[in-house]
Design brief:
The protein is mainly alpha-helical and about 300 residues long. It contains 14 helices and four strands. It has a two-stranded antiparallel sheet with strand order 1-2. Helix 5 packs across helix 6 and helix 11 packs antiparallel against helix 12. The longest helix has 19 residues. The two termini are about 35 Å apart.
Length: about 300
Protein backbone atom coordinates (compact mmCIF):
# COMPACT_ATOMS: atom_id res chain seq x y z
CA UNK A 1 0.00 0.00 0.00
CA UNK A 2 1.46 3.37 -1.05
CA UNK A 3 2.20 5.88 1.70
CA UNK A 4 0.16 9.08 1.24
CA UNK A 5 2.25 12.04 0.10
CA UNK A 6 2.95 14.71 2.66
CA UNK A 7 3.30 17.98 0.72
CA UNK A 8 4.66 19.89 3.71
CA UNK A 9 7.35 17.32 4.33
CA UNK A 10 8.22 17.38 0.64
CA UNK A 11 8.30 21.19 0.67
CA UNK A 12 10.58 21.17 3.69
CA UNK A 13 12.98 18.84 1.90
CA UNK A 14 12.74 21.06 -1.22
CA UNK A 15 13.65 24.21 0.74
CA UNK A 16 16.38 22.42 2.66
CA UNK A 17 17.94 21.29 -0.63
CA UNK A 18 17.51 24.58 -2.47
CA UNK A 19 18.63 27.10 0.14
CA UNK A 20 22.15 27.33 1.54
CA UNK A 21 22.83 29.29 4.72
CA UNK A 22 26.22 30.07 6.16
CA UNK A 23 27.79 29.30 8.48
CA UNK A 24 26.89 25.65 8.09
CA UNK A 25 26.33 25.29 11.84
CA UNK A 26 23.36 27.69 11.51
CA UNK A 27 21.85 25.96 8.47
CA UNK A 28 18.81 24.47 10.22
CA UNK A 29 15.50 24.16 8.40
CA UNK A 30 14.06 26.72 10.82
CA UNK A 31 16.82 29.18 9.91
CA UNK A 32 16.22 28.62 6.22
CA UNK A 33 12.51 29.29 6.67
CA UNK A 34 13.40 32.60 8.36
CA UNK A 35 15.66 33.64 5.47
CA UNK A 36 13.10 32.60 2.85
CA UNK A 37 10.38 34.53 4.65
CA UNK A 38 12.52 37.67 4.79
CA UNK A 39 13.48 37.31 1.14
CA UNK A 40 9.83 37.14 0.06
CA UNK A 41 9.12 40.13 2.30
CA UNK A 42 11.88 42.10 0.57
CA UNK A 43 10.64 40.91 -2.84
CA UNK A 44 7.17 42.29 -2.07
CA UNK A 45 8.66 45.62 -1.04
CA UNK A 46 10.75 45.86 -4.21
CA UNK A 47 7.69 45.11 -6.38
CA UNK A 48 5.36 47.38 -4.36
CA UNK A 49 3.08 44.39 -3.79
CA UNK A 50 2.62 44.59 -0.05
CA UNK A 51 -0.80 42.93 0.14
CA UNK A 52 -1.29 39.23 -0.55
CA UNK A 53 -4.25 39.00 -2.93
CA UNK A 54 -4.81 35.28 -2.32
CA UNK A 55 -7.58 34.80 0.26
CA UNK A 56 -6.19 32.78 3.16
CA UNK A 57 -9.24 30.52 3.53
CA UNK A 58 -9.34 29.84 -0.21
CA UNK A 59 -5.67 28.92 -0.23
CA UNK A 60 -6.33 26.35 2.50
CA UNK A 61 -8.60 24.54 0.03
CA UNK A 62 -6.04 24.75 -2.78
CA UNK A 63 -4.33 21.57 -4.00
CA UNK A 64 -0.58 21.86 -4.37
CA UNK A 65 2.40 19.55 -4.72
CA UNK A 66 6.18 19.63 -4.86
CA UNK A 67 8.17 18.15 -7.74
CA UNK A 68 11.92 17.83 -8.12
CA UNK A 69 12.47 21.46 -9.11
CA UNK A 70 8.99 22.99 -9.12
CA UNK A 71 5.97 23.65 -6.94
CA UNK A 72 2.55 23.29 -8.59
CA UNK A 73 -0.58 25.05 -7.34
CA UNK A 74 -4.05 24.00 -8.44
CA UNK A 75 -7.22 26.07 -8.49
CA UNK A 76 -8.05 28.04 -5.38
CA UNK A 77 -11.01 26.99 -3.32
CA UNK A 78 -14.15 29.08 -3.21
CA UNK A 79 -14.49 29.72 0.48
CA UNK A 80 -17.28 32.23 1.05
CA UNK A 81 -16.98 31.74 4.81
CA UNK A 82 -14.03 33.55 6.35
CA UNK A 83 -14.32 32.66 10.02
CA UNK A 84 -12.50 34.51 12.78
CA UNK A 85 -10.80 31.47 14.27
CA UNK A 86 -11.33 30.22 17.79
CA UNK A 87 -13.65 32.75 19.48
CA UNK A 88 -12.16 34.92 22.19
CA UNK A 89 -14.92 33.66 24.49
CA UNK A 90 -13.38 30.17 24.45
CA UNK A 91 -10.00 31.55 25.50
CA UNK A 92 -11.14 33.32 28.68
CA UNK A 93 -11.10 30.40 31.10
CA UNK A 94 -7.70 28.94 30.14
CA UNK A 95 -6.18 32.43 29.88
CA UNK A 96 -7.05 33.02 33.53
CA UNK A 97 -5.41 29.70 34.47
CA UNK A 98 -2.32 30.59 32.45
CA UNK A 99 -2.04 33.99 34.14
CA UNK A 100 -2.30 32.36 37.55
CA UNK A 101 0.37 29.83 36.55
CA UNK A 102 2.65 32.75 35.64
CA UNK A 103 1.53 35.03 38.46
CA UNK A 104 4.33 37.30 39.65
CA UNK A 105 6.57 36.87 36.61
CA UNK A 106 5.71 40.36 35.30
CA UNK A 107 5.99 39.44 31.64
CA UNK A 108 5.29 41.86 28.79
CA UNK A 109 1.80 41.33 27.33
CA UNK A 110 3.17 40.13 23.98
CA UNK A 111 5.35 37.54 25.73
CA UNK A 112 2.31 36.37 27.72
CA UNK A 113 0.29 35.96 24.51
CA UNK A 114 3.07 34.02 22.75
CA UNK A 115 3.48 31.64 25.69
CA UNK A 116 -0.28 31.20 26.12
CA UNK A 117 -0.77 30.38 22.44
CA UNK A 118 2.01 27.82 22.80
CA UNK A 119 0.08 26.12 25.61
CA UNK A 120 -3.21 25.91 23.70
CA UNK A 121 -1.62 25.28 20.26
CA UNK A 122 -3.00 21.70 19.93
CA UNK A 123 -6.53 23.08 20.20
CA UNK A 124 -6.04 25.78 17.56
CA UNK A 125 -6.58 25.40 13.82
CA UNK A 126 -4.59 26.71 10.86
CA UNK A 127 -7.19 29.47 10.51
CA UNK A 128 -6.22 30.78 13.95
CA UNK A 129 -2.82 31.71 12.49
CA UNK A 130 -4.10 33.82 9.65
CA UNK A 131 -2.48 37.25 9.79
CA UNK A 132 -4.87 40.15 10.16
CA UNK A 133 -4.52 43.40 8.20
CA UNK A 134 -2.27 44.69 10.97
CA UNK A 135 0.09 41.75 10.45
CA UNK A 136 -0.78 40.04 13.74
CA UNK A 137 -1.82 36.41 14.04
CA UNK A 138 -5.56 36.08 14.51
CA UNK A 139 -5.12 34.01 17.70
CA UNK A 140 -2.97 36.80 19.18
CA UNK A 141 -5.72 39.32 18.47
CA UNK A 142 -8.41 37.03 19.91
CA UNK A 143 -6.33 36.56 23.06
CA UNK A 144 -6.21 40.35 23.50
CA UNK A 145 -9.99 40.51 22.95
CA UNK A 146 -10.46 37.85 25.65
CA UNK A 147 -8.23 39.80 28.04
CA UNK A 148 -10.10 43.05 27.34
CA UNK A 149 -13.43 41.41 28.18
CA UNK A 150 -11.97 39.98 31.41
CA UNK A 151 -10.61 43.43 32.25
CA UNK A 152 -13.97 45.06 31.55
CA UNK A 153 -15.47 42.95 34.32
CA UNK A 154 -12.54 43.24 36.70
CA UNK A 155 -11.13 39.72 36.46
CA UNK A 156 -7.75 41.07 35.44
CA UNK A 157 -6.07 44.44 35.54
CA UNK A 158 -3.60 46.22 33.31
CA UNK A 159 -0.64 47.63 35.20
CA UNK A 160 2.43 49.45 33.95
CA UNK A 161 5.77 48.32 35.28
CA UNK A 162 9.13 49.43 33.96
CA UNK A 163 7.40 51.31 31.13
CA UNK A 164 5.51 48.36 29.70
CA UNK A 165 2.05 46.90 30.14
CA UNK A 166 1.42 43.65 32.02
CA UNK A 167 -1.73 41.65 32.85
CA UNK A 168 -2.37 40.94 36.54
CA UNK A 169 -5.19 38.88 38.02
CA UNK A 170 -7.59 40.48 40.48
CA UNK A 171 -8.92 38.46 43.44
CA UNK A 172 -12.03 37.37 41.46
CA UNK A 173 -9.68 36.36 38.63
CA UNK A 174 -7.63 34.24 41.05
CA UNK A 175 -10.81 32.56 42.33
CA UNK A 176 -12.02 31.69 38.81
CA UNK A 177 -8.55 30.54 37.70
CA UNK A 178 -8.29 28.29 40.74
CA UNK A 179 -11.63 26.64 39.97
CA UNK A 180 -10.77 26.31 36.26
CA UNK A 181 -7.39 24.74 37.10
CA UNK A 182 -9.28 21.67 38.32
CA UNK A 183 -10.11 20.94 34.68
CA UNK A 184 -7.28 18.80 33.24
CA UNK A 185 -4.98 19.89 30.44
CA UNK A 186 -5.16 22.97 28.26
CA UNK A 187 -8.10 21.94 26.10
CA UNK A 188 -10.31 24.91 25.30
CA UNK A 189 -13.92 24.64 26.52
CA UNK A 190 -16.76 24.82 24.02
CA UNK A 191 -18.90 27.70 25.27
CA UNK A 192 -22.32 27.52 23.67
CA UNK A 193 -24.31 30.12 25.60
CA UNK A 194 -22.24 33.16 26.66
CA UNK A 195 -23.49 35.54 29.33
CA UNK A 196 -22.99 39.08 28.01
CA UNK A 197 -19.66 38.12 26.46
CA UNK A 198 -18.45 36.14 29.48
CA UNK A 199 -17.90 32.41 29.82
CA UNK A 200 -20.83 31.24 32.05
CA UNK A 201 -18.29 29.26 34.08
CA UNK A 202 -17.17 32.61 35.54
CA UNK A 203 -20.65 33.26 36.91
CA UNK A 204 -20.82 29.75 38.38
CA UNK A 205 -17.75 30.55 40.48
CA UNK A 206 -19.93 32.81 42.65
CA UNK A 207 -20.56 29.74 44.82
CA UNK A 208 -16.86 29.72 45.71
CA UNK A 209 -17.24 33.04 47.57
CA UNK A 210 -20.78 32.72 48.96
CA UNK A 211 -19.60 32.89 52.60
CA UNK A 212 -16.38 33.28 54.56
CA UNK A 213 -15.65 29.56 55.21
CA UNK A 214 -16.25 28.72 51.54
CA UNK A 215 -13.94 31.50 50.36
CA UNK A 216 -11.20 30.35 52.76
CA UNK A 217 -11.62 26.78 51.50
CA UNK A 218 -11.49 27.94 47.85
CA UNK A 219 -8.29 29.92 48.30
CA UNK A 220 -6.86 27.33 50.69
CA UNK A 221 -6.99 24.71 47.94
CA UNK A 222 -4.72 26.98 45.90
CA UNK A 223 -2.21 27.48 48.67
CA UNK A 224 -1.94 24.16 50.54
CA UNK A 225 0.03 23.59 52.67
CA UNK A 226 0.71 27.33 53.10
CA UNK A 227 -2.62 28.20 54.70
CA UNK A 228 -1.53 30.30 57.71
CA UNK A 229 -2.05 33.35 55.53
CA UNK A 230 -5.78 33.04 56.13
CA UNK A 231 -5.29 33.34 59.88
CA UNK A 232 -2.97 36.32 59.49
CA UNK A 233 -5.30 38.14 57.10
CA UNK A 234 -8.62 36.85 58.45
CA UNK A 235 -10.09 40.34 58.92
CA UNK A 236 -9.08 41.43 55.42
CA UNK A 237 -10.57 38.31 53.87
CA UNK A 238 -13.81 38.68 55.83
CA UNK A 239 -14.28 42.18 54.43
CA UNK A 240 -13.29 41.02 50.97
CA UNK A 241 -15.84 38.19 51.03
CA UNK A 242 -18.73 40.60 51.42
CA UNK A 243 -17.58 42.68 48.45
CA UNK A 244 -16.94 39.56 46.34
CA UNK A 245 -20.53 38.44 46.95
CA UNK A 246 -21.78 41.83 45.79
CA UNK A 247 -19.45 41.67 42.79
CA UNK A 248 -20.84 38.33 41.60
CA UNK A 249 -24.43 39.46 42.18
CA UNK A 250 -23.74 42.33 39.79
CA UNK A 251 -22.35 39.95 37.14
CA UNK A 252 -25.38 37.68 37.46
CA UNK A 253 -28.01 40.43 37.48
CA UNK A 254 -30.06 40.07 34.26
CA UNK A 255 -31.70 43.49 34.74
CA UNK A 256 -28.46 45.45 34.29
CA UNK A 257 -27.24 46.55 30.88
CA UNK A 258 -23.61 46.00 29.90
CA UNK A 259 -22.50 49.51 30.87
CA UNK A 260 -24.06 49.34 34.34
CA UNK A 261 -22.71 45.83 34.92
CA UNK A 262 -19.16 46.92 34.05
CA UNK A 263 -19.39 50.09 36.12
CA UNK A 264 -20.72 48.39 39.25
CA UNK A 265 -18.33 45.44 39.05
CA UNK A 266 -15.38 47.81 38.75
CA UNK A 267 -16.74 49.85 41.66
CA UNK A 268 -16.76 46.80 43.96
CA UNK A 269 -13.20 45.95 42.94
CA UNK A 270 -12.08 49.50 43.74
CA UNK A 271 -13.66 49.05 47.17
CA UNK A 272 -11.65 45.85 47.57
CA UNK A 273 -8.45 47.76 46.88
CA UNK A 274 -9.38 50.21 49.66
CA UNK A 275 -9.57 47.55 52.39
CA UNK A 276 -6.75 48.18 54.86
CA UNK A 277 -4.13 45.45 54.41
CA UNK A 278 -5.64 44.17 51.15
CA UNK A 279 -2.55 44.89 49.02
CA UNK A 280 -0.34 43.00 51.49
CA UNK A 281 -2.80 40.10 51.46
CA UNK A 282 -2.77 39.86 47.64
CA UNK A 283 1.04 39.92 47.57
CA UNK A 284 1.21 37.17 50.22
CA UNK A 285 -1.47 35.14 48.46
CA UNK A 286 0.41 35.37 45.17
CA UNK A 287 3.56 33.99 46.78
CA UNK A 288 1.62 31.08 48.36
CA UNK A 289 -0.28 29.86 45.30
CA UNK A 290 0.59 26.27 44.30
CA UNK A 291 -1.08 26.23 40.89
CA UNK A 292 1.33 23.65 39.42
CA UNK A 293 0.26 21.19 42.13
CA UNK A 294 -3.42 21.78 41.39
CA UNK A 295 -2.92 21.27 37.64
CA UNK A 296 -0.90 18.09 38.24
CA UNK A 297 -3.65 16.70 40.48
CA UNK A 298 -6.29 17.45 37.85
CA UNK A 299 -4.26 15.73 35.14
CA UNK A 300 -3.56 12.72 37.37
CA UNK A 301 -7.26 12.36 38.20
CA UNK A 302 -8.21 12.54 34.51
CA UNK A 303 -5.62 9.87 33.64
CA UNK A 304 -7.11 7.30 36.01
CA UNK A 305 -9.09 4.53 34.25
Amino acid sequence: MDTPRDPFREFEQFVDRLIVVTPESAATVERKIDFLDRLIERWRIERHELINQVVFEEFLDCTWLVDTDSIYFGDLGNSSHQDTGTPALQLQRRLLVFLLLNHGKHQHVLDIIKAFVGKIRPDLSTRDFKKTETGVFRCFTNTRVAANKLRDYGLLKYTHEEAFKVWVLSLPGIVVAGKAAKEPGWTLPRVADPWHGLDPFILECADATKDFPTLVKTLGELCEPNTRIFETFGRVLAEAQGLLSQYWRVLQNPDLDAAARKKLSQQHLQELDCIFGYTDFIEELSSCVQIEKLLAEANAAAAKP
